[in-house]
Amino acid sequence: MTQIIMHFYYSIVLKTKLFSLARHLCYLNGGGAKIHTKHRSRAKHVRNISYKARYSQPHGSHCTIAIREMRFTKSLLNIIFPPLCLSCRKHITSSLVLCNVCEQNITIRGSFSCSQCNSRLPTIQNTCHPNEQFTLAAATSYDNNVIRALIHAFKYGGTKDVLTPLSNIIQQYTSSTIESWKLVLENCVVIPIPLYRRRKRVRGFNQAALIAEVFIQHLQGIGNLHIEYGNLIKIRNTLSQTKLNNYEQRVNNVRDSFVLKYPEQVVGKNVILVDDVFTSGATMKEAVKVLKEAGAKKVVGFVIARA
Predict the structure, then answer these.
(1) In the predicted model, is pLDDT for residue 231 greater than 50?
(2) C-alpha span between 43 and 158 (Å, rounded)
(3) Pairing verdict, β 299-306 and 270-278
(4) Residue scoring higher pLDDT (182 or 67)
(5) Rounded to whole angstroms, how far apart are CA atoms 70 and 82?
(6) 136 in the same domain as 11
């Protein structure tokens, strides 16, 4: 798995640097960039760059050459570092992260489940434990090696290209459960499980937020959904749940780690809480507790996979 991540990491880093270099050359060599600097303070400057490269004009030729060189170099990199399937390591086309065989090996769940016992529920409104505070919507199983490879590359390898197969998974799941989703989409907000600010800064993104953005795209036709960023906040830099051995340790690890900045914004509303994986459920249950205490109505936890 380490070799997989390193392969994609170096490939993406090299391609990103080449793209940035080509764009930089494009606008430094007569690309028509207009730079306006506003001085907010002695220490900070905000640079607003308006790129207006006109390829049909003489000064645009430098930009065209730079882009052609970038494309050539990217093609060369694909030969030196041929794209491999994240799961089985077979060669694939550069636009994919999974081969067709591995993608077809993903089984989509067509139902909702109890967050306690994993029993299948007929609709999103049902629970099999009267004290359970939310219903779980898991698109697939984390026991699938392909899913494990996708999510691991996404979270720890920064491979955002996996959003394409993840989008396909979400689309198939929401399509098969669309009638149930209609029951909660009225007066509903979508909230991604937040990362602690330091961890987000290191990773560069919150994977739950990116999944939430893809999720609402597949439900926009039946509801006016929006993502509420910055309301649910993680206030403690907890240990990674994967490093803890038992459920009790995981519960204690995330206890009192979430707060709502604007609790009034969830009062009486249905909430779809989004994360990547549901394992012990300790993280999501802690977040649900905060939402319920603030007055949220129905809470549904959506994840790509359940362990």
Answers:
(1) yes
(2) 31
(3) parallel
(4) 182
(5) 17
(6) no
154 with 186, same domain: the answer is yes
Q: Which of the listed ranges 44-53, 87-96, 296-305 does the model predict with the highest average pLDDT?
A: 296-305
Which CATH number goes with the domain that contains 139?
Answer: 3.40.50
| pTM across the whole model | 0.74
283 and 153 both lie in a single domain = yes
**CA 132 from chain center: how many Å?**
26
Verify that 217 and 143 share a domain, yes or no.
yes
Q: Determine which helix (DSSP H) or strand (DSSP E) holds 3, and give its type and residue range.
A: helix 2-28
Residues paired with residue 141 on neighbouring β-strands, in sequence order: 306
Tokens 């139902």 — which residue? 111
**pLDDT > 90 fraction of the chain, expressed in percent and rounded:** 52
Check residues 300 and 70 and name the one with the higher pLDDT.
Answer: 300
H or E element, residue 77: helix 61-80
Report which of 56, 175, 15, 184 is spatially closest to residue 109, judged by C-alpha positions.
175
At 11-39, the pLDDT tens digits run 555 555 544 544 444 433 444 333 333 33
| Beta strand 270-278 pairing with 188-192 | parallel
Compute the mean pLDDT over every residue in the chain, rounded to the nearest whole number. Answer: 80
Structure tokens that stand for 249 in this block: 């340790």
Q: In the chain, at which residue ranges do the beta strands (DSSP E only) sit?
A: 34-39, 45-50, 112-114, 120-121, 135-141, 188-192, 232-234, 258-260, 270-278, 299-306
Asked if 146 and 280 sit in the same domain, the reply is yes
Q: Rounded to whole angstroms, how far apart are CA atoms 133 and 125?
A: 11
- The answer for residues whose C-beta is within 8 angstroms of residue 124's C-beta and 6 or more apart is 112, 135, 137, 177, 180, 181, 183, 184, 300
